[in-house]
Amino acid sequence: MDPGGSHIKDDPDVKVMMAGSILKKVKSRSWKKQQHFCLLEDAVTIVYKSKSAGKGHSTFSISDVEEVREGHQSEVLQSTAEEFPAELCFTLVFHGRQGNLDLVAKTPEEAKAWIKGVRKLIHKAQTMDEKERQDQWVRNWFLKADKNKAGKINFKEVQTLLKMMNVEMKEGSALDLFTRADKSESGSLEIEHFVHFYKMLAQRDEVRKVFKDCSGDGENLLLEELETFLSVKQHEGGQSYQLAKMLIDLLCAAKKQRIMSLDGFQSYLCSQEGSIFKPKHLDLHQDMSQPLSHYFISSSHNTYLLEDQLLGQSSLEAYIKALKRGCRCVEVDCWDGSDGEPIVYHGHTLTSKILFRDVISTLKEYAFKASDFPVILSIENHCGVGQQTVMAQHLSKILGDTLLTTLLDGQVPQQLPSPQELKGKILLKAKKLNNPEDCLDGTQTDEVSDEEAEDAESPSTGKPPARKKSKLSKELSDLVVYCKSVHFRDFEHARSHAKCYEISSFSEKKAKALAKDEGTDFVRYNTRQLSRIYPGGIRAGSSNYNPQEMWNVGCQIVALNFQTAGLEMDLNDGLFRQNGCCGYVLKPDFMRDSNTQFSPDKPEERQGYKPLRLSIQVISGQQLPKVNQKEGSIVDPLVRVQIFGVPGDQRVKETPYINNNGFNPVWNETLHFDIHTPELALVRFEVEDHDKASRNDFIGQFTLPFTCIQAGEQRDSSLLNTFPLLRISSHTSPLQDGIAIPPASLFVNISISALT
């Protein structure tokens, strides 16, 4: 094993990082501090601290960094551009919700070295295979234990390390493993001996049993034996032989002999091919030629906010993060600016303000980074006619041909165009003076929408004013084509009068009431028209509602506060993880039929009703992270499985907890669920640290659509690091949610059968 990534450590730029640099950390025009930044020996961890911090310091991993921006490519560095030349500046952009790190070097050469060095390290981290990741993980543990950098660790250091690794082990058992690994009988382990120690420690009886049952000699799997396992146990069907060959070529040292060792078998179970998520469903695989109304669309509410709805910061970065996450509908709240330039913020609050034109420039740059399919720009318009015209000018000039301003075929639309037809286009959702097929001149008036009225609530009474007419600019109106905002009256009126290009916004309270009282009508309405749901005004802290209730009736644009980690965003991420993370998911066929009889409350009455039984044997977990950083603390993990879907499918079941074992807990607990509408169900695995005295600590989760589950003998559910609302404590962070926790995982046996 490479004892620390020696090849990358020889790179001249990485050497600069390891030597350390004094960089200026910039948070605003007034907050700038010099801090010492240094890449540690593991070539993964960056430590930084100021002189006044004493022994205190902060760290982050290269795997946390998504990209490096060069020059003035952040709001903070743009605001200080006159003070710091572009060639000295760079920005580290992190995954998840963590804020950027804006840095200024002393010389252009130093800045360039850090920019190039971090990019090389990111590339190395992204291109590692499963074995390399595991090797690095083991190597990093070794480096943590080897505090005096002697290149070896003694038994006392190993005991301390076991606690850090979440392992509770009797001293005699630990000493026995240590002695067996100490081939040189020196009383200490060098890196290669520690690898042997780790492999013995990580040996998993439950996997070994499956392996031996399939192997003729108990030592290796022949190509034919692996093919049989894949076909019979993993239900891979006709592709089993080709898959077996590919896995041996990819994961095994003995390629020529066409055999797989136990190590290779374990690597397979942790690979994408062994994942609980069907690999084909991760790719773009759905029909994208149906009307927009036939898809669920990943959507953000008040996209400009990074925090709460009253005092939070408005930022272009919020748009960048949402768009790069696959969001396809972003929102802009527009108000008159004092200098004639429209501004974006949450009106009548203390949220900060940003320029409308900067939002549109950001949209132009990032709209299609994660997905080629259309972006809907939802305008909440509070501007006077003059600044509406300025908005129209910015939209036209900045977006150019990217902004769709005419009907695709010049014909009166009978149905909405498809995502495929609208690839690379931005659609404006706003009020319109006329219909797309009409031609009117002059300034006219239109009704204020429900959401605009809610935003205009009187601070003293909290009540919206009576619905009134607002003046519209013809220039802005003309840019609206397929998403004309209209007030919703009722379903009967919509059936007889509504056009396919008319879209209404519903508060979560209104949508819930309609779903409960007129569920089937809501489903039918959503087969032809788009509907947008937004969080209620009481959610000042930017909390979210459960989006599943809205998907159950076919609502497409279910807008959530993307900045807030928690269960609701776990569900959103889980639904849109499929289909290439493109932000569009095709609704089930019974939600695309305008004559559907489907009701979420009575799924058994729909045509084609086929309920299923889902059985999940939670076998074991691997290398679960510590959540309580107290010395000697070890997790007591339990697994909770939750089903989200139509009301009759909502279920929660859990395993018992395992005392003091986060390293390799074994449950062998089977949980059964009856699923009446599998097409709408989401399955969420959550791992918690049991606490007898208080609320359990959250460890990690993985959420996926029921239809994307691979049934098989043993499957790996990689845990994602997310921290639900109200479970955030001083030692955990909501900023890293959605980021994998390598190599933490669950192993499960999934069985799906017809419910009789």
TrEMBL record:
Membrane topology: Peripheral membrane protein
Bias kind Acidic residues: ranges: 447-457
Cofactor(s) recorded in Swiss-Prot or TrEMBL: Ca(2+)
All copies of domain EF-hand, residue ranges: 133-168
Region (Disordered): 437-470
Assigned GO CC terms: endoplasmic reticulum; nucleus; plasma membrane
Domain C2 intervals: 592-719
Domain PI-PLC Y-box: residue ranges: 476-592
Active-site feature positions: 301, 346
Domain PH intervals: 15-123
Enzyme class of the recorded protein, top EC level: hydrolase
Pfam families in UniProt: C2 (PF00168), EF-hand_like (PF09279), PH (PF00169), PI-PLC-X (PF00388), PI-PLC-Y (PF00387)
Reactions mediated catalytically: a 1,2-diacyl-sn-glycero-3-phospho-(1D-myo-inositol-4,5-bisphosphate) + H2O = 1D-myo-inositol 1,4,5-trisphosphate + a 1,2-diacyl-sn-glycerol + H(+); a 1,2-diacyl-sn-glycero-3-phospho-(1D-myo-inositol) + H2O = 1D-myo-inositol 1-phosphate + a 1,2-diacyl-sn-glycerol + H(+)
Keyword presence, Translocase: no
InterPro entries: C2_dom (IPR000008), C2_domain_sf (IPR035892), EF-hand-dom_pair (IPR011992), EF_hand_dom (IPR002048), PH-like_dom_sf (IPR011993), PH_domain (IPR001849), PI-PLC_fam (IPR001192), PLC-delta1_cat (IPR028391)
Residues involved in Ca(2+) 4 binding: 634, 636, 660
Binding site for Ca(2+) 5: 689, 691
Keywords: Calcium, Cytoplasm, Endoplasmic reticulum, Glycoprotein, Hydrolase, Lipid degradation, Lipid metabolism, Membrane, Metal-binding, Nucleus, Repeat, Transducer
Residues the record marks as carrying a glycan: 184
GO molecular function term, any single one: calcium ion binding
Subcellular location: Cytoplasm; Endoplasmic reticulum; Membrane; Nucleus
Binding-site positions, substrate: 429, 431, 505, 532
Location (main, coarse): cytoplasm
Sites where the protein binds Ca(2+) 3: 302, 331, 333, 380
Protein name (database record): Phosphoinositide phospholipase C
